[in-house]
Amino acid sequence: MTTTEQRRPMIEADGLSKFYGPFAAARDVNFSVLQGELVAFLGPNGAGKSTTMKMLTGYIAPSEGEARIAGHNMMDDRIEGSRHLGYLPESGPLYMEMTPSGMLDFFAEARGLVGAKKRDRVEAVVEICDLSSVMYKPISKLSKGFKQRVGMSQALLHDPDVLILDEPTAGLDPNQIRGVRKTMRKLAETKTILLSTHILQEVEAMANRVVMINEGRLVYDGDVNGLREHGNDDLDQAFHQLTQFDT
């Protein structure tokens, strides 16, 4: 088994800040996610989670600091870093007039997958995301749960080492959430995952570790048990204690 000392950082936020005029959406955020970890990224709405994730993926440039994926600076070497990265934003990139089959074929070709390799990867993500029953239905006709699965499937298509997922269970019903959690646990066996959420039950169900920000600043980085200590063994109370100055 790989020890913590042997695992390399796969996601690194090194002093990340993002300023919009005088407003700081994120300020001096520092943390890293080691190979094989599933880390929950917590914070209230407007805390800077999505902004930080967009900087980590290279989607937006930081005002200060550096984001690295598998050791690659996501501003200077984004293409190589992106080869290691699967990113699912809060509102995933879906083409509603397409079917899942057509969309996966399109994204596979865009990523340079051809022939047997393309076929194998499409089959793999269809199985992982349990899409076989809806492959030829228009995406616009699918439930929100299936739309989330389609978004996840395109993020997994190139078999990345790293997944950054922004609120993947937002708006889903309990059965759909259960399905996403099952998928996350399966993926965590082979991937490094940073999962943004504000649902504390997801932290207990899936995460090895918690990183929390509030008002753009890091306020906690540690395990779930350590987080409980901030709220007398109550995660809801701990969340409140660490973020209450936001209200």
From TrEMBL:
<dbReference type="GO" id="GO:0016887">
    <property type="term" value="F:ATP hydrolysis activity"/>
</dbReference>
<keyword id="KW-0378">Hydrolase</keyword>
<keyword id="KW-0547">Nucleotide-binding</keyword>
<dbReference type="Pfam" id="PF00005">
    <property type="entry name" value="ABC_tran"/>
</dbReference>
<keyword id="KW-0067">ATP-binding</keyword>
<protein>
    <submittedName>
        <fullName>Putative ABC transporter ATP-binding protein YxlF</fullName>
        <ecNumber>3.6.3.-</ecNumber>
    </submittedName>
</protein>
<feature type="domain" description="ABC transporter">
    <location>
        <begin position="11"/>
        <end position="240"/>
    </location>
</feature>
<keyword id="KW-0813">Transport</keyword>
<dbReference type="GO" id="GO:0005524">
    <property type="term" value="F:ATP binding"/>
</dbReference>
<dbReference type="InterPro" id="IPR027417">
    <property type="entry name" value="P-loop_NTPase"/>
</dbReference>
<dbReference type="InterPro" id="IPR003593">
    <property type="entry name" value="AAA+_ATPase"/>
</dbReference>
<dbReference type="InterPro" id="IPR003439">
    <property type="entry name" value="ABC_transporter-like_ATP-bd"/>
</dbReference>
<comment type="similarity">
    <text>Belongs to the ABC transporter superfamily.</text>
</comment>
